[in-house]
C-alpha cells in the first residue's frame, strides 16, 4: 500500500476519533479511565489468581472484584491520611483575621492604594478594602441561590454516575483483561485488525509506563515540596506540598501556579510577624523551594517519565504540549502526551514510509 493510500485510510480513523471525542466525551473519558485503572490493577488480579489455600483457588471473577476493592481501599486510605492534615491547615487559613492581614501589610497596602489612585483605578480617598467590599456586594446581588443549589446537585449527580460507571467498567476490564482492547477492535475493519492489535499492544505498554511514572512524579513532588516547606519553617507545609504536587500534573504551567498558591498561603497564614525580617524571607523561601523542586523535576523526573516512558525527545514533547495548550487550554496540556503517544504509534503503523513519521517514531 503506497503512502497516499495509507493516508486515505488513516484520515477516516482520525475523523471518527475527533467526532467521538466531541459527541461522547464523557463516556470516552469513563472508558479510558477504566482502561487505565484496569491496566494498573492487572498485577493485583494476577497476584490473587496465584493464591491458593490447599487445593482451593478463588474464582477469577472474585479475584477481579478483590483487586478492585484493594484499589479503592488504597485510595480511601490515602484520602483518610492526607485529607485530615490538609483540612486542619485549611481550617487555620479560614480562621485568619482580616485585622491581622491589614496590620501586617499596612505599609505596602498604603503604597499600593496611592499608586492605584494615581493611575485612576481607585477614587481619591477610597481604600482597597472599600473597593473590594463594593465589588463583592455587587456580585452577591446577582447570585441566584436556587441556581447554585441546582448546579451543585447536578455536579454531585454527574460525579456519582461517573464514579459508578468507571468502577463498573473497571471490574469487567479486570475480569477479562482483553475486553478493553477487544472493545476498541470492534470499530476496526477486518483487514486492519492485525495492525490495530500492534497499535493497542504498543500503546498499552507505553501508556502504562507513562501513567505509573506520572504517579511517581506527583508523589515525589508532593514529598519534596513538603520537606522543603518544613525545613524553612512554613506552618502549612503539608497543604502547600499537596497542592503544589497536584499542580504538577499541568506541564510547565503547573509549577508556576503551585508556587503562586504556595506564596499566597505563606503570606496569609504567617501574620503578626515582622514583614521584612520574617514574612518576606518565608515567602521567598517557599518560592526557592518550588524552584529547586522544579529543577529536580526537569532534570531527573521528567526526562525519565516523558522521554524514556513515551520515547520522545524533550523538545518534541515541549512543542506538542504548547500546541495542545493553544488548542484546548490546560485540559489539552494534560492530555497532550498520552494522545501524542497514541497518534505516533498509529502513524508508524500506517505511514511508516513517510520521512517525517520515520523521524518522529524512530525511538518506538
Oligomer description: single chain
Count of DSSP-assigned helices = 14
Decide which structural class fits the backbone.
Answer: mainly alpha
> What is the alpha-carbon Rg in Å?
26 Å
> Sheet bearing the most strands, described?
none
First-residue to last-residue Cα separation: 22 Å
Q: What is the helix fraction of residues, given as a range?
A: over 70%
Name the average pLDDT: 76
The secondary-structure element order is: HHHHHHHHHHHHHH
**Binned strand content:** under 5%
SS elements, strand count: 0
Summarize the structure.
With 364 residues, this protein is an all-alpha fold. Helix content is 83%, strand content 0%.
Describe this structure in words.
The protein has helices at 3-23, 25-50, 60-94, 98-104, 106-118, 128-141, 145-175, 179-185, 193-232, 237-247, 253-269, 275-310, 314-350, 355-360. The relative contact order is 0.09. It is mainly α and 364 residues long. Helix 9 packs antiparallel against helix 10 (237-247) and helix 9 runs antiparallel to helix 13 (314-350).
Provide tags for this entry:
mainly alpha, about 375 residues, about 85% helix
Give the helices and strands, then pairings.
Layout: H1 3-23, H2 25-50, H3 60-94, H4 98-104, H5 106-118, H6 128-141, H7 145-175, H8 179-185, H9 193-232, H10 237-247, H11 253-269, H12 275-310, H13 314-350, H14 355-360
Helix pairs in contact: 2-3, 2-7, 3-7, 9-10, 9-12, 9-13, 10-11, 11-12, 12-13
Amino acid at each position: 500500500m503506497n503512502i497516499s493510500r495509507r493516508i486515505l485510510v488513516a484520515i477516516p480513523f482520525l475523523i471518527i476519533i475527533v467526532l467521538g471525542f466531541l459527541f461522547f466525551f464523557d463516556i470516552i473519558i469513563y472508558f479510558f479511565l477504566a482502561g487505565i485503572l484496569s491496566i494498573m490493577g492487572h498485577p493485583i488480579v494476577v497476584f490473587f489468581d496465584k493464591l491458593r489455600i490447599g487445593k482451593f483457588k478463588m474464582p477469577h471473577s472474585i479475584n477481579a472484584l478483590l483487586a478492585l476493592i484493594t484499589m479503592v481501599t488504597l485510595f480511601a486510605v490515602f484520602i483518610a491520611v492526607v485529607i485530615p492534615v490538609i483540612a486542619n491547615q485549611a481550617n487555620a487559613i479560614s480562621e485568619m483575621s482580616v485585622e491581622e492581614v491589614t496590620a501586617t501589610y499596612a505599609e505596602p497596602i498604603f503604597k499600593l492604594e496611592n499608586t492605584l489612585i494615581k493611575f485612576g483605578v481607585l477614587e481619591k480617598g477610597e481604600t482597597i478594602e472599600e473597593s473590594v467590599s463594593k465589588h463583592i456586594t455587587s456580585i452577591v446581588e446577582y447570585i441566584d441561590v436556587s441556581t447554585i443549589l441546582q448546579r451543585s446537585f447536578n455536579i454531585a449527580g454527574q460525579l456519582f454516575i461517573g464514579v459508578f460507571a468507571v468502577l463498573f467498567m473497571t471490574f469487567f476490564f479486570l475480569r477479562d483483561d482483553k475486553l478493553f482492547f477487544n472493545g476498541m477492535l470492534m470499530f476496526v475493519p477486518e483487514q486492519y485488525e492485525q495492525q490495530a492489535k500492534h497499535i493497542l499492544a504498543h500503546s498499552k505498554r507505553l501508556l502504562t509506563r507513562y501513567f505509573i511514572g506520572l504517579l511517581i512524579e506527583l508523589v515525589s513532588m508532593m514529598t519534596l515540596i513538603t520537606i522543603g516547606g518544613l525545613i524553612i519553617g512554613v506552618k502549612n507545609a503539608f497543604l502547600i506540598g499537596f497542592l503544589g504536587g497536584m499542580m504538577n500534573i499541568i506541564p510547565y504551567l503547573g509549577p508556576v501556579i503551585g508556587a503562586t498558591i504556595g506564596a499566597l498561603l505563606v503570606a496569609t497564614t504567617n501574620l503578626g510577624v515582622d514583614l521584612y525580617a520574617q514574612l518576606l524571607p518565608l515567602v521567598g523561601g517557599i518560592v526557592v523551594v518550588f524552584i529547586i523542586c522544579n529543577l529536580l523535576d526537569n532534570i531527573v523526573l521528567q526526562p525519565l517519565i516523558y522521554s524514556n516512558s513515551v520515547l520522545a525527545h524533550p523538545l518534541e514533547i515541549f512543542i506538542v504540549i504548547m500546541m495542545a495548550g493553544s488548542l484546548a487550554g490546560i485540559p489539552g496540556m494534560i492530555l497532550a502526551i498520552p494522545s501524542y503517544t497514541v497518534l505516533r504509534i498509529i502513524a508508524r503503523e500506517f505511514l511508516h514510509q513517510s520521512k517525517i513519521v520515520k523521524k518522529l517514531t524512530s525511538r518506538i
